[in-house]
Design goal:
mainly alpha
Length: 126
């Protein structure tokens, strides 16, 4: 009887090991560098989504973020944005033309966070 589970090719195994190294670096880094200010899964996911928007040159509004974050309810998005702001990852800046519109802007802490995640990726590559 042959098992459906076969050993992964060497390259796949190497990629999996590097990914596990990356995850381990992230977990260790969060525990050490962000004591008391770490992000939960939802906050991290929302910050990553915002990071992709900023990287594309966008300055999304709160309403746009609520529309894009289909994995969360609008109330959850609003709570998470508030938390990201309180922890210094984002600023909510009023639009110059319409006081009702707030843009979500990255802070230096957000840039530092993304740089740290990038360094973990590089270190995991060996």
């Amino acid at each position: 009887m042959t098992s459906n589970l076969q050993a992964a090719p060497a390259q796949q195994n190497q990629h999996a090991m590097r990914y596990m190294d990356y995850l381990q670096l992230i977990e260790t880094g969060h525990a050490v560098l962000q004591e008391g200010n770490s992000l939960d899964f939802q906050g991290e996911r929302l910050l990553n989504m915002l990071g992709l928007a900023w990287h594309a040159g966008e300055m999304p509004t709160v309403l746009q973020v609520m529309g894009r974050a289909d994995m969360f309810s609008p109330t959850t998005v609003h709570r998470r944005l508030k938390l990201l702001s309180m922890r210094g990852f984002i600023n909510l800046v009023m639009d110059a033309e319409d006081n009702r519109v707030k843009h979500v802007v990255a802070t230096q802490r957000a840039h530092d966070h993304f740089a740290l995640m990038g360094s973990y990726l590089i270190n995991a590559r060996g």
